Amino acid sequence: MIEIRRARETDAEVISELFHIAYGDDYFYPQYYDIQSLKRLILSDDALFLVAEDSDTSTVLGTASVLLEVGAHADLVAEFGRLVVHPQGRGQGIGKKLMQARVEFVQDRLHVGVVENRSAHEFSQRISHQHGFHPVGLLPNKFQLGDRESAALYVCHFGHALELRRNHPHLIPEVYPLAKLALENCQLNCDAIIEAEPRAYPHFHQFEIQEMESELYPVLLRFERGRIKQREIFGRMRLHYGLFQLRASHAQYLLAYRDGVMVGAIGFSIDEHERTGKIFELVSLDDSPIYFLVSELVQRCREEYSIDYLEADVSAFSPQMQQTFLENGFLPAAYIPAMIFHEVERLDVVRMVCLLSIWNGDALQVFEPGKTIADLVDQSLGLRTALPILMQTVKTAPLFAGLSAEQQQYVAASAELETLEEGHVLFRPDDPADKIRVIISGEVEIQNCHRKTVGTICVHESLGALASVSEPSHRVSARVKSQGQAMLFSRDALQQLVHTRPDIGMILFRNHACELAEKLQRMNVHALFKQK
Questions:
Q1: List of residues 6+ apart from 413 with CB closer than 8 A
Q2: Residue 216: is it exposed, middle or buried by C-beta count within 10 angstroms (0-12/13-18/19+)?
Q3: What predicted TM-score, i.e. pTM, was given to this entire model?
Q4: Distances in whole angstroms, Cα of residue 262 to Cα of each of 207, 210, 219
Q5: What highest taxon heads this organism's lineage (predicted)?
Q6: Backbone dihedral angles phi then psi of residue 193, each to the nearest 5 degrees
Q7: Which residue ranges does the chain devote to CATH 3.40.630.30?
Q8: Are the C-beta atoms of 463 and 445 separated by less than 8 Å?
Q9: Beta bridge mates, 438
């Protein structure tokens, strides 16, 4: 008979052995191998450790834990994780029993429970879903397993958590599809408001940067006092928890100075073993250093700290901060309703991830309820790979001349990268005019109904824009003359872009008119020479 009980100090060696059997020597939390670390966790008030024991043989066949207080003090957030079953105990429902026991032990102490399930197999995802947890995101390459492994994020709400949730979060367009899926998965109506014209914090670079030393802690503490009213970044640590706790959590701060005066600071923690980082606090004198601090930290993570994954929990009520992180290479990877307790209510959080390693989603094994969210994040990561190419096109193609840096970023994020294979027919007469292309490389020839070439679309020229705007179908054919790439907009994406950003639409239509006039002039000259 399998009995679930709280772990005792004497179970530490057996628990360590279970992790060795399950993961070899490569588990991404090495403290679960160390006997003394396990004993401290077992005896800690901030952790619940359970074991599954065969009462007939007194053999421990499984273990699971809950880490309490993974958010800030009073957030009432806990992480369910580290569930391991011995091969001899599989098939006996031990995983389900451990999960059920964990929920029963801690549900009265929580408002929000989260699980970061491995994505290499569906076992833990299925158990989480069966016990009331819902998929809300995919954390790409979060775990240091093999070439890195992603985590399927699941969440469960307890007690009065959802009753205390603040309604109507304000989101940038890139976050909304993920938020809609996550809210619906948690049986909530999607009440989010889309900010049609989000603006990031202003770009300023005239700051000196310095890492916080011990003697600067009191200075930063005084600086922070009274300057945080509406938090936009959330995390487990905060400056006022004390220097000792900051050091114990490997927390650091980058300080921004202007003319020798401190004007801002960003707090973050680095796990050197996992090669991951997390931003947990941002404080500033005014708006000016915010963009700079985020950008500086991303650069240091890439060049100095050598980490592969950086995340931040951003308020769902701060589209300006969401846009700032988006422009600095972060993507929305999870949306957690009612995650943070702030004053008298709970706020939704957007978990944004900056991936500094190569993404390969081929190894994902996602349980069916979370597949739609995983696909959405996977598509965003695919766009991230193409974004530098798209940005370069936006900066050089005449169709986009006159766009500001922020407008360029917005346009590039609305497009896809398409490969053009030589000889491929992109469209024929009477095909729906539902795509607009800007040629990045290669050439496309335009043919009439008699298959005679009447023109050639070259690098940085647009294809299909006029038909897509004015007509439901094409009147000519387009065939790839030489292999290359194109920047692709669907008709719906372009219409949405123009609708939400009329400032961009005005520039695009003006440039398109100039480009069309040039093409017509070129065709007239060609026809004139042909007649002669």
A1: 174, 326, 383, 387
A2: middle
A3: 0.77
A4: 9, 10, 9
A5: Bacteria
A6: -110, 125
A7: 2-157, 170-367
A8: no
A9: 462, 487
Whether the CA torsion 321, 322, 323, 326 is positive or negative: it is positive
| Separation CA 488–CA 498 (nearest Å) | 15
Task: Evaluate the CA torsion angle 287, 247, 141, 340 in order and state its sign.
Answer: negative
- Cβ-based neighbour number of residue 449 at 10 Å: 11
Which of helix, strand or coil describes residue 106?
helix
User: Residue type for 193, please?
Assistant: I
Place of tokens 């959330």: 234
Q: Quick check: 153 and 350 in contact, CB under 8 A?
A: no
Here the tokens at position 121 are 């197999």
Task: Tell which CATH classification among 2.40.30.170, 3.40.190.10, 3.30.420.40, 2.60.120.10 matches the domain 397-531.
Answer: 2.60.120.10
Q: Two tokens at 435? A: 């795509």
CB of 84 closer than 8 Å to CB of 64: yes
Q: Where in the chain is the domain with CATH 2.60.120.10?
A: 397-531
Return the closest-CA partner of residue 210 out of 223, 227, 229, 200.
Answer: 223
Write down the CATH superfamily of domain 2-157: Gcn5-related N-acetyltransferase (GNAT) (3.40.630.30)
State the Cα–Cα distance between residues 14 and 232, nearest whole angstrom: 43
| Fold exhibited by the domain 170-367 | Aminopeptidase (3.40.630)
**Orientation angle between helical segments 371-396 and 176-185, nearest 10 degrees:** 170
Give pLDDT tens digits along the chain (532 positions).
Answer: 899 999 999 999 999 999 888 888 777 778 888 899 899 888 988 889 999 998 888 899 999 999 887 666 567 899 998 888 988 888 889 999 999 999 999 999 899 999 999 887 788 899 999 999 999 999 999 988 777 889 999 999 999 999 999 999 999 999 999 999 999 999 999 999 999 778 899 988 889 998 876 555 555 665 565 555 578 999 874 444 443 444 445 678 899 999 998 888 898 988 888 889 999 889 888 899 999 999 999 999 988 988 999 999 999 999 999 999 998 889 999 999 999 988 889 999 999 999 988 887 767 889 999 999 999 999 888 777 777 888 889 999 999 999 988 788 788 878 888 899 999 999 988 888 888 899 999 999 988 877 888 888 889 988 886 655 666 788 889 999 999 999 998 888 888 788 878 889 899 889 888 887 776 776 654 544 454 4
Backbone angles phi, psi at 236, to 5 degrees: -70, -40
**What is residue 74's three-state secondary structure?**
coil
3-state secondary structure of 288: coil
